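Researcher: Please predict.
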Amino acid sequence: MQTRRCVVLVDWWGQARAEFLANKKPSPGQNSEQALRKVEKFVEDRLKHEKLQPKRWEISFRLYAGWMRGAAATAALVDYKQLEAGYAKRRRTGTELKSILFLPSTIGLARGDRLLADTSGRRLEKRLGVHFPFTSRVECNCKLCSHLGQKGPDGFVCDRVMEKQVDTAIVADALSLSVDPEGIKILIVSNDDDILPALVAGEALGGDITLINTVKKRHTHAKHLLDLIHGPEENSQ
């Protein structure tokens, strides 16, 4: 095999980026670039274990987050635009697996708010050009929001931001890629168990799909799926 594509679906703002930048001061775009470099290392570590190695891997990323609140861009989207402008303007190879080629942002970086299955764009919100313009919402399900209208007796205001349609968009795109005749390698970077159904369905549809965890998880409830999961595993206590 000369060249094989690998598409990496990343649960971005609330998971991968937050995990790698927990103690970082805000720096739009630049910090996110550092976080994405760390994701690249997880990708490279997984692809090293592939039994059949092509002469070249072409890696592209799709990032999923709460990008918009109606017509208003969220902090995640503002940051993404900075990331897109500065990330990988040149092609880069892997540090250990030299057959890996991380594509430049012009063709190798995209947001996941336009689902891959709707190739005609029939269901896009026409003005904004995305399927889901409300992937970020301020309200949550805490008691303060549910019963006190987001404001407590002491004046405290809940400012928790909820991401919507993120996990399900990842699953939808993973299934679309699973039936692609090209035989794309699908990597999902997430620590959320809501992604697990995508592994079962994607494999059943003929997809070559793997979930990458960035934190230690025991997966005691999903031991039958361990061959489809890659990441640091905790030892049983």
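Model: The mean pLDDT is 86.
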